[in-house]
Known about the structure:
The chain is about 30% helix and about 25% strand.
Amino acid sequence: MTLDSTDLFGDVLDRRVVPVLLPMPAPRGYSYVVPDRMAVEPGSIVQVPLGPRLVVGVVWDGPDDGTVDPKKLKAIEKVFDCPPLNRDMRTFLDWVANYTITPPGLVARMALRAPTAFDPEPMVEALRLTERRPERMTATRERVIAAASDGYSWTRSGLAHAAGVSSSVIDGLQAQGVFETVFVPPPPVVTAPDPDFAVPRLEGPQRQAAADLLTAVEARNFSVSLIDGVTGSGKTEVYFEAIAATLRAGKQVLILLPEIALTASFMERFQDRFGAKPAEWHSDLAPRTREKVWRQVTTGQVRVVAGARSALFLPFEDLGLIIVDEEHDPAYKQEDRVFYNARDMAVVRGRISGFPVVLVSATPSVESRVNSEIGRYRPIHLPTRFGDAALPHLGVIDMRRHPPGRGGFLSPVLLTEIGRAIGRGEQALLFLNRRGYAPLTLCRVCGHRFQCPDCSSWLVEHRFRGQIQCHHCGYSERMPEACPECGTLDHLVACGPGVERIAEEVERHFPEARTIVLSSDLMGVKRLRLELEAIAKGEADIVIGTQLVAKGHNFPMMTLVGIVDADLGLANGDPRAAERTYQLLSQVTGRAGRTGLKSLGLLQTYQPQHPVMQAIVSGDAEAFYEREINERERAALPPFGRLASIIVSADSRQDAEGHARGLRNAAPRVDGISILGPAEAPLALIRGRHRFRLLVHGRRNSDMQSFLKAMIAAGPKERGSVSVQMDVDPQSFL
Ligand code: ADP
Ligand code: ZN
C-alpha cells in the first residue's frame, strides 16, 4: 500500500461514498469510496475494482445504497479525463431502464460503447516550417516548402501528398532543421458541416412543410413533428432545413437511419448540402473510428451524427434535434439484452432535454399516425413527388388467373413486363424477402423434412454455397445427396422459392440479361455498397433482392418492380402484419420511377382483394390507415392499449413452461390488465432453448411497468438454465 491509500483508509467516518453503475444486471449502483484528492460528480466515468477485475462505470445520482459496511468498501481507482454524462443523459438512461425493465447498468453500458475513448485522444506528431532553409535547394524541396508556408502544422504523409513528393524528401528537410516537430490535437473525424453550404430552392408544398417544421424547430422546446410524404417528395430536403437551423443555433444533431451501413448515398447527399459528411455510428465502424467519434461527440467537435439506433445512446455534449428517418422501420426495435424502440426513446430523449424530434416516413407507423391525428404530433404533409418524377403505376397480378409455368414462381404477366423493361434498356427489380434457394427441402420418397437440430425451423437450402442452413442459429451442413431418413438418392425436392431460385428462373427466361442477386448472406457491407453503386450506374438488367434493396437506394433506370410474393408477410400471427406488409411493399415499389421515366410496380398475389393490396394499387393510403386504426382501436391494441411480452426460455421444455406458469400465478390482480398464456412460442426452440411466451395486455393508461415488476418480484426466482426476457411494446411475436 502506498502512502496515499493509508490516507484513504485513515478516517472511515469522513469518507465520501457514491453509487457507481456498473455494466451488470444489478438493480442499482454499487457503493465505492471516493479517494481524498479525487474529484467526482454524478456522471463521471470511472474505473473501479470489481472482484479481481477493473471495470468501467458511471458515478450515479442519489445516495449510495448504504447496505454495505463502509469499512469493506473499495475505492474508485481512477476518474477518466472525459466530460461526465450530463444530467439529461442520466435521466434518460434511468427512464429507459425503468420503462424497459432493464437493470440501469446495462442501459448505461450502451452509452459507454467505446472502451478506450474515455481518455483524451493522444496528441499527434506534426511538422512545422522553421526559418531555416536547406543548403541545397531542389525543385521538389521548393514544392514542399511552398506547400508548408501556410503557417499550419502538417502531418508527414499529408505534406508529402500535398507537395507531390515522397516522404524521404521531407525527412531530408527535417534533418536539416527546416521542419520542427510539434504536437497538435488529433484532427476531427469529420469536418464541421456548414448550414449555408448549398441551400436548395424548395418548391411548392415543400416550402410550406419547411416553414411548419422550422416553426417547431426554432421554438427550441420539445415537440414531435411527423413528416409524411411519398418517396421522392423531398422529405430529406425539408428536414435538412431543420438540421441547418439547429446547426446555426450551435446545437448538435442526430439523424437516425434504419440501415446505416447501406446508406452511402445518404452521406453523399448530406455532403452536397452541408459541404461535409456527418459522423457515422453503427456496428460496422472500425474500432478506432468508433472511439474517435464517441470522444468527439462528447466534446462537441462532431456536430452531426448519422447513425443506427444505438447512436441514441451517444453522450452528446449539447444535442438539439433528433431526426428519425423511416420511423416505421422495424430495425429501430432492438431485441437483444435491452429491448427498446429507438424511435420511441428518441421522443423521450427530446422530451427530457426539451428539444424537437422529427419523425419521417412515406408509410408512417399506425402509432405515429394516431399521434398526429390526435394532435400530439405536428403533421407535415408532402403529397407529391418532386419535379417530373411520377409515382409508378401499380397493379396486382392475380396468381389464380395468371399462374406461373410448371416449377416456376413468376407469372407470365410479370415475365412479359420484365422483357419489355430490359428491352428498352431499363432495369427490373424482383423482390422476395427470402434468402437462399428454397425455404424447405423434403424427401419425395419418405416425406422427411430437413429441420434444424437446435431450433424449431426448417433448414434453408443455399445452392450457391451448396449448404442447407438454419436462419435462426446459423447451423449449416453440406447439402446431402441422399435422404438421411430413408437413404434414397436424388429424391430431395426444394419447396418454395428464395431469391437464388428466382434468379435461376430469370436466367432461364432471359439468358442474355445481366442478373444480380442482392442478399445479405451473399456479401459483406463493402461489397454490397459497390454492387448498389454498380446497379445505379446501370451495370445490371435484372436485380433480385431481399429486404435490403428496399431501403433508400436511388436507381434511376429502375422502371419495373415486381413483388414475387406479396402475400408472404400476411401469413403470420403478428397484429402488425398488414401494416408491415403495406409499408414494405410501398417502399419497394417506391424504388421505381425515381426519374422522369414511366414506371410500373406489380404485386403477385393470391389475395388481390386484400385491403393491403387494394391500398397499394389504389394509392389510397388513407383508407388503409383508417381501417387499420379502427381495427386496432376495436381490439385495444397499440396505441389504444399496451402490450408487453415475456419470453421464458430454458434448456428443458418443462423448466421453461413451469417458470412461465409460476410468473403468471404470481401476477397481481389489476383492473384493466390481463395475461394471455403461457403458450409455447411459435419458435418453440432456438439454439436448443425451449421457449414459452406470456402476453400482457393493458389499457392505454395502465401502469404496465409496476405490474411487470410486481410479477417478477413475486414470481419464482430465475434458477438453473431459466432466463426471462421482458419485451415492453413488442414488435415480434415469434
Ligand atoms: P424523399 O426523402 O421524400 O424520398 P428526397 O428529399 O430524397 O425525397 O427528394 C427526392 C429527389 O428529389 C432527390 O434526388 C432530391 O435531391 C430531389 N429534390 C427534392 N426536392 C428538391 C428541391 N427543392 N430542389 C432540388 N432537388 C430536389
Ligand atoms: Zn437453428
